[in-house]
Structures are given as C-alpha cells and as structure tokens.
Amino acid sequence: MLKFVKHNMETISGVEIYPIISLLIFFIFFVGLYSWVYTYKKDKINEMSNIPFTEGNENGATNN
Fold first, then answer.
1. Which of 9-13, 30-34, 40-44 is predicted most confidently?
2. Whole-angstrom distance, CA of residue 17 vs CA of residue 21
3. pLDDT class for 13, splitting at 50, 70, 90?
4. Beta carbons of 55 and 62 less than 8 angstroms apart
5. Chain centroid, CA 14 distance in Å
6. pLDDT above 60: residue 19
7. How far apart are CA 34 and CA 26, in angstroms?
8. How far is CA 56 from CA 4, 45, 61, in A?
C-alpha cells in the first residue's frame, strides 16, 4: 500500500517543500503558544483559577 502512495508522491513536482512547511507551521505555533503563556499576566491566571470557587454562577444559584 505504501509503495502506491510513495510512487504517486514522487511524480508530483515540488512535493518536497510540504514537509518543511508543515514543520515550520508546527514549530511557529508552539513557539507562539509558549510566548503567549509565558507573558500572560499572573493576576489574570489567578482570577481564572478561582472561577470554580465563586459563590454564584450565571444562573443566580448558589453553592451550598
């Protein structure tokens, strides 16, 4: 099965650039995600981590 796919991929001109492009997209995405998480404000992280412990929710019900 793989030899059929490999043969078809070899006949496409310029196909060797696609693995490089996909690696660059993968790398840039995770570098961007890391920089976004690293620069996120600590106060906002603490505020979001305390959301489950708030007394009320959007429906007006309270936790007992």
1. 30-34
2. 6
3. confident
4. yes
5. 28
6. yes
7. 12
8. 60, 20, 6
Length of the chain: 64
Give the model's pLDDT for residue 57: 61
C-alpha triplet 29, 43, 45: angle, nearest 5°:
45
Handedness of CA 17, 22, 25, 31 (dihedral sign): negative
3-class SS string, the chain: CHHHHHHHHHCCCCCCHHHHHHHHHHHHHHHHHHHHHHHCCHHHHHHHHCHHHCCECCCCCECC
